[in-house]
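During data preparation, a discrete fold description was generated, and the record follows.
___
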Amino acid sequence: MDEAIGSIVDYLNENDFKEVVLVGHSYGGMIITGVADRVPDRIRRLVYWNAFVPNNGESLNDMVPPQFVGLFDAIAAERGDGSVVLPFPIWREAFINDADLETAQRAYDVLNPHPIKTFKDRVSLKIDPAEMTIAKSYLNCTEDTALPHHYPWHPRLSQKLGLFRLVQVSGSHELCFSNPLRLAQAIIEAGRD
């Protein structure tokens, strides 16, 4: 996680980018939070799209149900390469339930394995997101069942942002595959001044 955060910080610094709107999806919420903590003067707004919102010292595994941690560990152990790729039936029903089978399969075929270590890495922040003065938005896809409904993305995670703009849109966790135009419109709504 630290390498991912550092690579974006370096990119922003090397190119002297300012007034940046960072969008983080799912695990990407961990990354954009870390980037904003390190270079707040370069960020205009953070957009969390069905994303994890960590406070200092939290990991992704701290924000998911215990059975998910067990599932991730079991998959990584079975793969033997330290990464997680969910089986298609789980991914299909939980992550892209609003797409037809062909779209779901095509999307699944381009996924990359996710390193298990990043689920366990704890983010190091000087201040938690609620105290950050950067503008924040939470983009919530209302049919996202990647997490059980008793562990909702919003309001459970969004409330950790303090003051934020809420944009809700119908769709699954992977709206980028099932309805990319609607997602783009929602990102524009979430990222506007």
In short: The first helix runs from residue 2 to 14. The CA atoms of residues 78 and 158 lie 33 Å apart. The helical segments are 2-14, 28-38, 66-79, 88-95, 101-109, 117-120, 175-178, 180-191. The beta strands are 20-25, 43-49, 83-84, 114-115, 135-141, 165-169.
